[in-house]
Amino acid sequence: MGGRNNHFGGGGEGFFRLLRTMASTPSTLPTALGLLPGRLLLLLAVFALLLLGQTSTFVSAAAGDYVTSRGDNTRAGYFPSANIDPDLIAAGAFGKLYSATLPPLGPNGLVGDIFATPLIYTPPGSPQVFFIATEQNNVYVVNASNGALIASRNIHPPFNVGVDVPACGDIQVWVGITGTPVIDPATSTAYFYTKTYAAGTTSGLGVPTNGRYKLHAVDVLTLNERANFPVDIEGLVADNSPASYSAYFESGKHLQRPALTLLNNYVYGAFGGHCDLYNFTGWVIGVHKTSGAVATVWASAINPSSPDKNGAGIWMSGGGLASDTNNRLFFVTGNGDSSPTTSTTLGSTPPMVLGQAVVNLHADPDTGKVFPQDFFMPYNYASMNGGDRDFGSGDITPLPKYFTTPSGTSVSVAAGKTGDLYVFNTNYLGGFMTGANGGDAPDVSIVPGQSKSVYSQAGAYPGEGGYIYMNYIGGPITAYQFTVSNGKATFVPAASSAKTFGLGVSSPQITSLNGAVGSAIVWVQDFVSGSIYAFKAVPENGALTQIFMDKYGNIGASAKFVQPAIGNGIVVAAVGNPGAVYVWGSPTTLAITAPFTDFGKVVIGFPVTATVTFTVSSSVPTITVSGFTLADKNFTVVSQPTFPVALSAGGSFSMVLEFNPTVSGTYTSQVQLITSLGAKGPGYGSLHALAVANGPELTLTPSMISFGAIVLGSGTVTANAFISNTGNTSLSITGITLPDLPFIVLNPPAVGTVLQPGDTSTLSVLFNASQTGSFSGQFKIQSTGGNSFYLLSGVASNPPALRIEVQRPDGTWDASQTNLSSITVNFGVVYPGQVTVLGVRLVNYGESVLTVEKSKLPFGTGGGVSTVGAGVGEQAKIPAGSSVTTNFTFTSPTSQIGVDPTNYTAVWTLNTDGSLFGVQLINFVGVATPYLIPGFPQYRYMGCFAEITGRVWPGGGFTNGQSSIMTIPTCLSTCVPKGLKYIGLEYAQECWCGNTVPTVSSTACTSPCKGNSSETCGGAGALSVFALPQDFPKPTTTSSSSSVSTITSTSSSSSSPSPGTSTSTSNSSSSPATSSSPTSSPTPSTSSSSTSSAPITSSPPMSPTTTSTSSSPTPSTSTSSSAAPSGTPTNWKYIGCYSDSPRLLSGNANNAGAKLASSTWNVYNCTLGCVAKNPTYLYAGLEYGGECYCGASIIGAVSVPETDCKTECKSDTTQICGASLRLSLYHYEPAAGTSSVSSSSSSSLSTSSTSTTTSTSATSSSNSPSPSNVPATTSFSTSTPSEAPASSPTSSSPSGVPTTSTISSGQVSSDPPSPTTTSPSISSSSPSSSPSSDATSPTSTSATTSTSATPSPIPTTPVGWGYLGCYQDVVNGTRVLKTQVAGSTHLVYDCIPALLAVSKTYIYAGLEYGGECWGGASLAVEVKLAETACSTKCKSNTTMYCGASKTLSLYYFNATVASSILSASSVSAASAASKA
To answer: Among 6-10, 592-596, 626-630, 915-919, whose mean pLDDT is lowest?
Structure first.
């Protein structure tokens, strides 16, 4: 259909616009030059060819290939030679050619989601192929002509975000290859990053420390890895790290979302975070494309004053680093939690923190090194941060040279969540607050957005006036036309699509037929509807006309933000799970066609004719044309042949058409032939014309300006209006009538203003209401070309207001938590196979539309909490007075009966513009509670065990003819009366019992019981074993250190065992060992033990059989013969030369250490300086000749040869201070007899069992620290658990401590809600001094009486402190403890002293989130959880557990126990002295 278009242009821009048109469409050069006066021909030719001569920064690919995101490194998304005709689309000759399925691969048997754009490439000597990468780390090569699979490969198992990063649902369950790969046509090599795990690991263990990112380089056809690849980038230290600390890359915490960039000989990848979790600092890493050498590592947020702050991630909704030359890279960063800068900062001096910024990195063409050379940061970045308004949700687009200003300024554009369009001088971005009154730089133009967010980058069309296209979430695609105002580039809104798009729509890409007028098309891929859309690129009547839409089919929708690939005449999309590739194009070569016919500029009243000639394709033997249709009535037939016309190959006929318009504007249409071949042989002829008025003509665009609904007090809203002369003679303004308030016209044209033919004047119209209501007005203009007016309208309302309502299990709704930053949804207890559904309702009780700014919904796998459907997405709109409900399921996974309950938690991170404050956390909690065994509620499932060499219990079969009705209760009812401890079921029907503990675990227990298919009765050669918890096997204590303890534990009761009380005897002993220290530095010991005499302590086990392992260079307790350098302070020992990459002390996320200022430390003042800095810093290390690092513990130490530490100390050349990335490491080892606690003795608070502990330790020196406030290592014991429920607190016990608790050796434990296991009594003693390394300290014996819950923690805690259990921290918005100590990497032994420094009245301490320390004098509320809920490993010692999200590992101080221990310590010390 034809349509009217306001033709903007002309005036002072005409000369440069002609140059740009000629340069962007070289085929038009002869015609264009032929229209000009002869004297200008040479000059124009020179200028046009200079523009043509600009070189690409990317290795050229074959025509029709798509080897990097958006076609080239500018990311402008323009494809001038795509060979897709909009008229063929409009006539129905363009559609889906085929779809081809992709096979599942890898350990999970999945194709995987596809977030990476498919690439199109033609290898030398081979057919064109598609290269597809998925989140399962799968890569596929598909024949482009027919979809046949050429090759496929699973690179690695993917990273499981469902387990390791459950609070972020942006990419659900699996992350593998996310960023779009890049292909190097010079070598036919594809580059991409995979996210996986370190060798031998399958999870990140709570904090994703095991995650690994690797850069791969593979042959495009064979998928074979190139030499020197893959490259593991874990632990790389940023080149821009300051002297005070090292910032290093942690793969598990980062996400490689942006597309890769190949620039010169280097592959650049950019990284952000998973949502805003962990460390979401941005990174740019460059690797040489053939050698695999890492050339550069740059971090976007380096803050020496607050190194724990982070942010400024680079994600850009999947956009890639952009480049317009061979030596610079552009990108946009997101929000962060660190202040970048607070004062005027020039773009040429970028700060070390670049959050909410557009960044220009210099990229050295020879070395690949990068550094920031220019930047822009909005003056209001702080408010953008507070509202989670990421600038970095979009990307920056350096525009083609067509968009250059007359002064030669190149132009770039960017937009983010605010929706405002920023227009930059590419060569000077603008810095921070460099404008008047601390505003943005004067070179930056800001085009107000639509109050809607942008999650994409601009697409550019350098033709017909120049347009860019932006996608607004919840809004349309908007076309902006290029213009220059006062010498500065800007854009004015020109048109929008009628179709609006939700979150996830792709960035626009534009095709044309070699730049031919009227041939440009805008393409987008829509995540929500699962469709491809196409629009005419040049506006018609103020609108972008939709010409195509097709769904992918029934296979599934794409991932969000994914773009289609553009090839030669084709558009390609890839979809994951189950997996397919879709290809659209013209189905056949057209049987008969006519060339594009342009009638040119036509004055109304003066019709123009043109001849259209149709020619038969050489591939068509014969065809008969029986008639035609002409779509637009402004085109009519003057002459035509007599139909039908029979033609053979190469034959032709002509028609003469006339264009006689009545309204000015741009017209496109087509002649469609009716042929004997029907749909298989269509024929088309495309028509184009521009109609102008005879004389001046005033055209106002748009005729109606609606400001929509605004929030009162939110500021002024601006719209652009255009006054155009669409006639063929000049036009004069003769009068204007301005509108009434609240509408304001900023720059109305003066009376007498003249507009030449084709000229356009741009106005700004403001809406700024001071009260609520609906407003309308008119803005009238009189001229020599007629009179017209704009209709203005707008609505002002009070703000939106959010009320959050939580559904209770009884179906009612609770709104009492609305104003809390943390809200709880409690599913309660759910039994196996059951699913509970609860809703969360967002109610907008305000007067304006409410926008959901952030919505990170939980999507669990297996059991636990998951969102039903898509849920409330980001940028969702909730009208005033309306509500939206999102439902959540809590699924209790099917499990064996007799298993302990499991606590599940999940978090929904929510932020709206209607909240009373910022981000709110909606916490979901529920307890999956398996059924107890009928008749035997005290028995528990111990596990699945294999029978390998024979029966575990020979002669213990008691099936008794009950095979066909065998169930777990049936088997127990047979075995329990016989007094046999262990009961097992096998082969679905056999019952076996015995007293021997099975030891070989198995995974083969999968057979449903014959008598009850909901129960599991072992499997082939596998026993499902049940027992009383106290009969479960005990944790094994082993140690590789030189100190050997002999531990004997006996527990007895005077009466027969009853539920909750156990009688057991455990004996383990080993002969005292004789140890001697080597002459070289000690190798770090690695222990797997439930005790430790070092400051590094073991933690609550996850299950009764869990053995925690610590790997730490804790020095041997024997006398070391390693010579300490002269000047070493007393009690500090040199323990060796260690690698410091990654950092062992300060800078290691697992260690809350410090780096002391200055770089001229020596051994003496560094060691003393560490203790002065913090009394818990027992490790000190020196490197680089004088840098001093301190820490309380060490994780992952790697000993290196002593010769590696060879750098003399700058301040004392007689000493060695490490070397480059090598630490000379020292440890504080106190002298003998200082605060040593060798054993414990306490009175019982209950008498359910008795434990006798004998401890013998062969040691050579004391381990008791002497610096003040360093907690002593204290002996603890645990005992048989009670099966009774925990008792409520009473007035006779400390607040929050169950009265049934027994406190022993500082350990306070409450009875669990379900049976648990018995762990042995364990004693850890500080070693005493001895003149020789084989001396043995005296044996001490203590009698303790205790009842405690298991699994229980056995950390090293200060005297009198003990573990209470795992508790929920936030209950109905109330925190259990109110005081937090600064820092996020605490352990229990440093948390407690820090709290006591705040107040000596604090008797409760808790750790959560892997290291946050909380305390108080009382508990505000008590909700005890299963021990498995405290599942987060401590950041500074991963052998320990420090609570979890909103979950506390809780400790308590008992003065009586403290007094008892200290008294026993005095007696023990005196005894030891008398025997010495």
So the answer is: 6-10
pLDDT score of 863: 59
CA-based torsion, 236, 242, 246, 249: positive or negative: negative
Cβ–Cβ contacts within 10 Å for residue 1161, how many? Answer: 25
Position 860 scores a pLDDT of 59
3-state DSSP assignment of residue 616: strand
79 close to 71: Cβ distance less than 8 angstroms: yes
Task: Measure the CA angle with vertex 43, ends 37 and 48; round to 5°.
Answer: 105
Distance of CA 398 to the CA centre of its chain: 26
Cβ within 8 Å of residue 1252, ≥6 positions away: 1048, 1049, 1050, 1321, 1341, 1342, 1343, 1344
Alpha helix positions (H), 470-572: none
Please report, for residues 968, 1033, 1057, 1425, the alpha-carbon distance to residue 932 in angstroms, rounded to integers and kept in the order given: 11, 21, 20, 18
Rounded to whole angstroms, the Cα distance separating 1214 from 1219 reads 15
CA-to-CA distance for 1209 and 1186, rounded, in angstroms? 5
For residue 285, the Cα-to-chain-centroid distance in whole angstroms is 17
> Which residue type occupies 509?
Q
pLDDT of residue 901: 84
Q: Determine the residue type at 503.
A: L
- What SS3 state is found at 1461? helix
Tokens 């999650």 correspond to 455
Banded pLDDT at 588 (limits 50, 70, 90): low
Of 102-116, 762-776, 1253-1267, which range is least confident? 1253-1267
Residue in 883, 925, 884, 873 with CA at minimum distance from that of residue 901 = 925
Residues 717 and 448: their CA atoms lie apart, in Å, by 8
Residue pair 686/617 in contact (Cβ under 8 Å)? The answer is no
In one letter, which amino acid is 1212?
D
Mean pLDDT of the chain: 76
Q: Output the CA angle 875-879-882, nearest 5 degrees.
A: 115
Q: Are 944 and 982 in contact (CB under 8 A)?
A: no
Distance in angstroms (rounded) separating the CA atoms of residues 139 and 61: 21
Q: What is the pLDDT of residues 1269-1319, one digit of tens each?
A: 222 222 323 222 222 223 333 333 222 322 222 322 232 332 223 323 333
Residue 1351: pLDDT band with limits 50, 70, 90:
very low
Give SS3 for 381.
Answer: helix
Query: Distance (Å, rounded) from C-alpha 1051 to C-alpha 1064?
Result: 6
CA nearest neighbour of 928 among 892, 881, 897: 892
Examine the pLDDT at 1468 and tell me if it is beyond 80: no
Distance, in Å, from the CA atom of 592 to the CA atom of 613, rounded to the nearest integer, reads: 10
Residue type, 19: L
pLDDT at 958 over 70: yes
Please write the tens of the pLDDT for every residue from 873-905.
Answer: 877 889 999 999 999 998 887 778 888 888 888
SS3 27: helix
The secondary structure of residue 668, as a DSSP letter, is: E
When pLDDT is cut at 50, 70 and 90, the band that residue 169 belongs to is: low
CA-nearest of 1158, 1106, 1167, 64 to 583 is 64
**Cα-to-chain-centroid distance, residue 1245:** 50
Please write the tens of the pLDDT for every residue from 679-703.
545 667 788 888 999 999 999 988 8
Region for residue 1331 given its phi and psi (left: phi exceeds 0; alpha: psi -120 to 50; beta: otherwise): alpha
SS3 229: coil
Two structure tokens written together for 534: 């196409």
CA–CA gap between residue 1004 and residue 944 (Å, rounded) = 7
